[in-house]
Structures
1.
Amino acid sequence: MSAAAGAVLDARGGQAARREHILDAAEACFVRNGFHRSTMQDLAREAGMSPGNIYRYFESKEAVVLGLADRERARGGALVERLEREGDRRGALLGIIERYFLAITRETAVLRVEIWSEANRNPDIAAMVVRSEEEARLWFTQTLAALAVSPACDPVALYGAMGPLMKGIIIERAILPDYDPAPSVAHLLGLIEAGLEGRLPAAHGNETDR
Amino acid sequence: MSAAAGAVLDARGGQAARREHILDAAEACFVRNGFHRSTMQDLAREAGMSPGNIYRYFESKEAVVLGLADRERARGGALVERLEREGDRRGALLGIIERYFLAITRETAVLRVEIWSEANRNPDIAAMVVRSEEEARLWFTQTLAALAVSPACDPVALYGAMGPLMKGIIIERAILPDYDPAPSVAHLLGLIEAGLEGRLPAAHGNETDR
Amino acid sequence: MSAAAGAVLDARGGQAARREHILDAAEACFVRNGFHRSTMQDLAREAGMSPGNIYRYFESKEAVVLGLADRERARGGALVERLEREGDRRGALLGIIERYFLAITRETAVLRVEIWSEANRNPDIAAMVVRSEEEARLWFTQTLAALAVSPACDPVALYGAMGPLMKGIIIERAILPDYDPAPSVAHLLGLIEAGLEGRLPAAHGNETDR
Amino acid sequence: MSAAAGAVLDARGGQAARREHILDAAEACFVRNGFHRSTMQDLAREAGMSPGNIYRYFESKEAVVLGLADRERARGGALVERLEREGDRRGALLGIIERYFLAITRETAVLRVEIWSEANRNPDIAAMVVRSEEEARLWFTQTLAALAVSPACDPVALYGAMGPLMKGIIIERAILPDYDPAPSVAHLLGLIEAGLEGRLPAAHGNETDR
DNA sequence: GATGAATGAGTTTTCATTCAT
DNA sequence: CATGAATGAAAACTCATTCAT
């Protein structure tokens, strides 16, 4: 808040830091009250700045959600990068699952549902969500391919099985007050294990064929 | 659902039929634009009536969403009942999965995401979602228990594995333009099959224990 | 409610009786919630009839208030007439004061305030109020003149002193929860007594002359 | 109240001055059309600002009326204080009567009736009115006690006689187009004079006892 | 006559966005 | 740069009034 501190922020990366700060505030507000029940005044109060000032960093309220969705996406990428730098691919895979599913906070889950819901009406958000999904799919299939221990392993099919399960864990975390993700995560890990070994418990006789 | 039935209901249906009619309109609007971008004017136009008239049937806009969530819940129960009357338990289980997951429309999926999201800020909706989940859990575990072909079958654990998967299918249907639920449904059926036989591909060594 | 009873009402004085019935309902509603917080639906429910039907007897909601104000006025006249038929002028004067001030109900007082307030914005009501005041003034001055026991009695000046006092009693009855009108009524009677005897405690040296 | 003072307040007055400004506008509107026929748009136009801006200073339309009632109450207290500072108690008493009854404007009277009427349905207003009455009662009885010239003076009884008279003057000012309060005020002064001397023309034989 | 469902203009209130300071 | 007062265009909701039955 001091003039000196402000000057420092302004000089180098001030713009970006301010955006981050606003996104933090927005995240807190959106998790608490959802996107549509949070006003720009709320964000401003939470961020400790004036409403008008937010518009110096984001074109509109919608742009804030978009920024939030994008940050979530980028954070996933950054975590992956860090985990891969720190260890092997298997560790990265397990780390991602640990962080994004086993240890997911209700806040994160709620925010994700909020973004998915917003994608239904905001094409920019929808595009961001699709891009995010695409990046995840790409990384997972590549990682699974690299970790395969059997030529019968089909990374694409495996990720096809993992995808809904992962999203479902997030939903349950968001909507069920006492949900414990541990069993589902264990199931997810079992699924991965089986898939990497090429024995994905798959389709068999599909009884609901039309 | 047929045009004829609709006409009969409209002609002399009274209070309940009007509510249904409004809920149909609301569903169309909410799927198209989401809850918060749909105005009461929109609903009224879609329903072919005046805005004020909607308030004869629903106390508020929130009550419309709640009514929609409740109708979805009740429809599930009704479908279950019909399927059980028409055939055996296995048929009912497969029928539910066919209808709610394999053949799910994007509209239904979007509406579901909308309701889940709304549960984050509307306690009435949250209660309705929890109730709905509870009813589903109860029916599935009972049905699975009845269909078990091995004493090792654990219906509660099995439903714990199925739950996120089912919700994830709905999410993917809602957010991914070209999503085909068939593979995931096949996976779900395989999971059920295995679970009923008591060979649920379970926890094993949990590698992400903290 | 029976067809026969309805027919009887219709044949003779039905119109007037229905108006009275509606005015009763309106009075109850207006006392409870005031004119502006009472809806035509409220009146209809209270009157046990449909909203639309009220419009067969009153042109508009405003006409109902006007009708109520007029009925209050007419009732005063009728009471006066009855009292004068039953006894002497002094008895009539005391009877009016007993009924309209000593034994005034909170409901009546509230209704009166409601009408006075409505006169501020509805010219028809204002005219009715003025007419009502005029009739009262006329009757009181004539009666006071007839009852005078001294040639020094000035009925006009006396009524000028009584008027505000009487209205003030009504106001206090309406706005003060535990108001007891007895002392003020006693004062009013003392004032009349003195006035009739020509010793009205009047102006003396007016210290606030401008 | 002077144009100069108003300008000063407007220029750099902040929150409180803006509230005053809005209350002035509200007063004008309410006197002209009554509370229920004045819209927030009307207030805004009269105040020379946007409707939304009023809500920065008042929570709701009801809060505006409450603010107005409170300002009237406070103004009375302030006038009393000023008069007492400027002169003796007798002067204060006469000054209040001069200002609030002899020189009362139709606007003030109408506003008062509006507030009394509103008290019938708004509990906050009712509480404010009761509080206001209580303050008046307290000040008058204390002042009368101090001014008593005879041990027989009963300030409580005296105020009991004055109260309705004072309110009645306001009513007549509000509802009678050509009302001149002078005679009634003279009567009021006579009453006070008599009361202070302990010869209140009181109850005597109450002829309407039941 | 009577009903009550329906209308739709009008009202309060909110809030994203702007802009003078 | 930053503020926060101000805007004004919606939006939810109400209710006097109408009219098909």
2.
Amino acid sequence: MVSTTESADDGANDQGESRSENRSPALSATAGPVHIYPITGNTHGSRSKRRQVKNACTSCQKASKKCDDARPCLRCVKYGVHDECVDSPRKERKKGAKRGPYRKRDGAEMRGIQDTPTSPSQETEISLTLPPMEPLPLVAPGYTPGFYTRFPVPCGKREEPYPPPFYLAPAAPSASDASSPSAALMDAPASYPLYDQMTPGR
DNA sequence: TTATTCGGACGCTCAACAAT
DNA sequence: TTGTTGAGCGTCCGAATAAT
Ligand SMILES: [Zn+2]
Ligand SMILES: [Zn+2]
């Protein structure tokens, strides 16, 4: 049942990303890019939060499929529909709706989260203490910065699955700029290997 | 076997509300 | 002014179905 169909595809990759709670933290630190957020979920059993892009492209939105921050997004690259890869318009939220009185939370829940760490703050610490990435992000020609759950260029007839997702960092405009990793990496998750590190044939 | 569709669970944003 | 709550709306998982 291992297929590279879209559903399997997206699904499989998603699991690597948003369902990664099943990975061991140690593993994720080296080969397995996991969450970039301090997930409070645990490493056994319950699923952690799903990560969403801020704005899916029209194509992905239409298909209800996972998008990414790059444009064209991975899915559009895969299907060659670059034209459709534009941010989908968002409705304006209703305003003026009355809501009635709020219920106060007793706070037990909140404390419970802190006091009963199903998984000690380990996971959190991992994401918070990740070592700084080296300041030499490269960008592949033709691709915009963003998250890639696998290499976007088809290798042969079908795409080779590249298990570890990675982040395609924006190219540093200049050498001097490259010296400021924070700018270059922007919101790049430190746990994602860089594009050039993922290049096939490595 | 692979591609497409789609219902609905889950997650995020932000205006209304409440406290200070 | 600042913090909290929760409705509204968005993303995308995963299963069903269709096409090849
Ligand atoms: Zn997309
Ligand atoms: Zn797209």
3.
Amino acid sequence: MYIKMATLANGQPDNTSLSSNHSNPSTNGHMNGLNHSPGNPSTIPMKDHDAIKLFIGQIPRNLDEKDLKPLFEEFGKIYELTVLKDRFTGMHKGCAFLTYCERESALKAQSALHEQKTLPGMNRPIQVKPADSESRGEDRKLFVGMLNKQQSEDDVRRLFEAFGNIEECTILRGPDGNSKGCAFVKYSSHAEAQAAINALHGSQTMPGASSSLVVKFADTDKERTMRRMQQMAGQMGMFNPMAIQFGAYGAYAQALMQQQAAIMASVAQGGYLNPMAAFAAAQMQQMAALNMNGLAAAPMTPTSGGSTPPGITAPAVPSIPSPIGVNGFTGLPPQANGQPAAEAVFANGIHPYPAQSPTAADPLQQAYAGVQQYAGPAAYPAAYGQISQAFPQPPPMIPQQQREGPEGCNLFIYHLPQEFGDAELMQMFLPFGNVISSKVFVDRATNQSKCFGFVSFDNPASAQAAIQAMNGFQIGMKRLKVQLKRPKDANRPY
DNA sequence: TGGAATT
């Protein structure tokens, strides 16, 4: 008990107990007689809108609310005073939260008491300061990205010190101690943090960094939770090449997450997304079969100048964002007959759903509706009307999570058509196997493709087949270069 | 010839 307190440098309780108390502030309050009683308006004290909740630390454990009250009352009327107790044992934790009715009282108490005296039996002075919950520092804490991995805390400090007082500077490191190339910098004030953003964000590119310095406010707790969940959702679509096509579904899932953040994890694992994956996988097999049929008519000749890569012309996927023609090359299913791509596919009797309007009750149908929607309003005026009701604000597409495949499964592709994006690249390599990721590199400044990219399969045989078929493949004036991606450390001498 | 990154 005492020992536990002593290990806390500032006397604040650990986060879990703090937040649990904070999230349920009335639990203790009703028992100590110092809090307002919500049932009786006449006894509710008013408090300033900008009242400060104070954390009081280094309180002897034999003092309860009524003992502490006189000590603090001399600085103003107390709105709420709550000694923190262990959630399970009810044991006094040696600290309290205190809110005065007036902000001014809190400030007076803090300057008069904080570290100014030591209560009987304690060997450290009393702590009186704004509770962590008052300012978690989020509004003055920066996330700094795109640092050089060699840069130290001191380097970062030097970079940021001109804009204000740095309270905290931490390089994020992996388990091995290596910098992750990013950091947190906490200023004393929001204004300082903002000044640093204005001056430094994008201002320079660190040697070895792939793009310019990122300086932004750090994520809030909620944002962090959201990111984790998104990553989780991304993981599930990882080995599923259809994931990219169901971006609209991913976005739908994201919307759900925002509403149901707390339960999303269990929902996802409980099968809400999984049926989708199963559905997509089944679709994939059917489409792969179709593509294979198409292959017989379209020989895989690497230098079959100007022709179409195997499988690409087969009715493939209904969701390529926009038709792209490169000297006759199209990554899209044929639309010459005026039929939209999805119809071309599903006219083959594998339409997963009868033609009917999607109902809100069926997430799979909604997902499928999302696909149609993505195929484009022009192609689906009628369906789009229905979908517009289902998705009043069509959510943005979540980028596919990038993932390196096993050794020998990752391809480097050069001389891509300028217009090619991730989706088109994936399209091109789907016929050779399970594409777990596709990435076209884009110049961050211009947003233009750098005409090279990477494709990762889940097995080396697919990668080899893709190299065989696609290396040297001519598109327009260029021939694709398709080879295994260089291992990370391959270009180092020795 | 990468995919980044939020304690």
